């Protein structure tokens, strides 16, 4: 199966993770743009280069596309890009014309511009460092109250106008995509709700898109992988099992729906059928939280896993979402008390609950339905997830003040040894910080 894949940007979870997942089945051939054509924290994607790359591709069965990369240069540039609506419209119509010649099934998503609840401008426009929290409050309370919040009088008019105009531009572009969907251009089109709260302009926009016939989904970075799972076009019967069943109604950090709804949405998007444990092909264990989701890096504690873990006697996968941005140390300790067994289909605990679930389900589906299974590729993927989600995010990252690969190599040694013992295989790896910040680490295999 030939699959085209245009990621959001060049981060490991967006770029290399897709390649690592498809490597599990040797019959899947992934075509992905050269990494240097994609955007990063400070640079926009080279869309002309991507257009030229598309023209060189062979016949494809499916094409998974992050539309923000084409329209704005990436997910982060979608909030910063100064281009006018007309300029972006011209660009995406050129893209549509090029893509129409490929005659592949198209699975695409576009983000609904997020509103981060802080004064950090690393991924936003410059003025977010001073006005970000106020803009979030203005959006939140205007939606909640049903009328314009008085906070508008606090934010300088030129800043608020710029922000609202950027939102309006992106929203109008999304409505254009919806017209393409109604024409039958897309097999599947998703509008993603990135970093949501209960109220806000982004939530309002999502409801309008839904009323117009669009499909919205909480999440962002994992959605191309969920679409990849969908493109595999093979049914998989999955039974979700919550380790804290009484609190599955609670909402994860950075999301606007319950963890139960998030699980259901991810499975449905990946074209999986939710069923009972007895009828399921595979079990999905969710290590969810009791009263609120924790987050180690933000120093938000929560009650860790306090039971014993016993591997089931049928295929299973594990979504560890008790904490955002990293694993539950107690739970991983329980997992490592046992040897890797043939029923284990994967573990994930990165970033948001949606990120964890979408990527995990995709990898599991690739393995379960593999026509030419590569065990070494699967073990490599699990090595990456445990090194990143557990060893780094939940532990070593907390000990580092600045990105330092040599320091990390020393800190991570005892964790790496435990992972290798569990997997029954050793790997030679090195580490780097692709965006020169602690938020993400990249594991490279030597």
Polypeptide structure, described:
The chain is an alpha/beta fold. It folds into two domains: 226 residues, no CATH class; 212 residues, no CATH class. It has 15 helices and 13 strands. It has a six-stranded parallel β-sheet, sandwiched between helices. The protein has a five-stranded parallel β-sheet with strand order 8-7-9-10-11. Strand 10, helix 11 and strand 11 form a beta-alpha-beta unit. Helix 9 runs parallel beside helix 12 and helix 13 packs antiparallel against helix 15. The protein is globular. 46% of the residues are buried.
List unreliable stretches of 5+ residues.
Answer: none
Gross geometry: globular
Q: Which band does the percent of strand residues land in? A: 5-15%
Main sheet?
Answer: 6 strands, parallel
Descriptive tags:
446 residues, alpha/beta, 2 domains, 5-stranded parallel beta sheet, 15 helices
Short synopsis of the structure:
With 446 residues, this protein is an alpha/beta fold. The chain folds into two domains: 2-227, no CATH class; 234-445, no CATH class. The chain is built from 15 helices and 13 strands.
Topology diagram in text:
Layout: E1 2-6, H1 16-22, E2 29-31, H2 47-55, E3 62-66, H3 67-71, H4 77-80, H5 85-100, E4 105-112, H6 128-145, H7 157-183, E5 188-193, H8 201-211, E6 216-218, H9 223-231, E7 236-242, H10 259-269, E8 272-274, E9 282-287, E10 316-320, H11 329-335, E11 344-348, H12 353-368, H13 375-392, H14 405-411, H15 413-423, E12 429-432, E13 442-445
Parallel strand pairs: 1-2, 1-3, 3-4, 4-5, 5-6, 7-8, 7-9, 9-10, 10-11
Antiparallel strand pairs: 12-13
């Amino acid at each position: 199966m030939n699959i085209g894949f245009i990621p959001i940007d060049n981060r490991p979870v967006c770029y290399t993770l897709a390649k690592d997942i498809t490597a599990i089945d040797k019959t899947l051939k992934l075509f992905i743009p050269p990494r240097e054509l994609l955007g990063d924290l400070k640079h926009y994607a080279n869309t002309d280069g991507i257009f030229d790359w598309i023209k060189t591709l062979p016949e494809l069965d499916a094409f998974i596309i992050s539309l923000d990369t084409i329209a704005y240069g990436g997910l982060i540039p979608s909030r910063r890009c100064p281009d006018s609506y007309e300029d972006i419209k011209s660009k995406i119509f050129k893209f549509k014309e090029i893509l129409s010649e490929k005659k592949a099934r198209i699975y695409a998503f576009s983000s609904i511009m997020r509103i981060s609840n802080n004064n950090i401008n690393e991924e936003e426009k410059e003025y977010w460092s001073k006005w970000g929290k106020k803009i979030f409050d203005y959006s939140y309370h205007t939606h909640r109250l049903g009328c314009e919040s008085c906070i508008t009088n606090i934010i300088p008019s030129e800043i608020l106008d710029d922000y609202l105009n950027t939102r309006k531009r992106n929203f109008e572009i999304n409505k254009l995509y919806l017209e393409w969907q109604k024409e039958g251009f897309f097999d599947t089109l998703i509008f993603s709700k990135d970093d949501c709260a209960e109220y806000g302009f982004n939530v309002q926009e999502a409801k309008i898109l839904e009323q117009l016939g669009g499909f919205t989904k909480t999440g962002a970075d994992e959605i191309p992988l969920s679409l990849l799972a969908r493109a595999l076009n093979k049914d998989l019967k999955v039974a979700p099992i919550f380790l804290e069943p009484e609190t599955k109604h609670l909402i994860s950090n950075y999301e606007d729906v319950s963890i139960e709804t998030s699980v259901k949405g991810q499975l449905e998007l990946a074209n999986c059928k939710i069923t009972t444990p007895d009828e399921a092909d595979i079990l999905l264990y969710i290590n969810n939280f009791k009263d609120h989701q924790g987050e180690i890096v933000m120093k938000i504690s929560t009650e860790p896993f306090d039971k014993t873990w016993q591997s089931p006697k049928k295929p299973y996968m594990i979504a560890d979402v008790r904490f955002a941005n990293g694993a539950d140390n107690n739970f991983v300790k329980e997992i490592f008390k046992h040897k890797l067994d043939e029923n284990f289909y994967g573990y994930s605990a990165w970033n948001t609950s949606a990120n964890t679930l979408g990527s995990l389900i995709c990898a599991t589906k690739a393995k379960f339905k593999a026509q030419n299974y590569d065990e070494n590729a699967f073990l490599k993927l699990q090595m990456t997830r445990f090194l990143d989600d557990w060893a780094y995010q939940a532990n070593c990252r907390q000990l580092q003040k600045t990105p330092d690969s040599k320091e990390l190599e020393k800190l991570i040694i005892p964790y790496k040894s435990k992972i290798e013992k569990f997997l029954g295989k050793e790997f030679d790896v090195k580490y780097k910080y692709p965006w020169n910040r602690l938020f993400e680490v990249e594991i490279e295999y030597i």
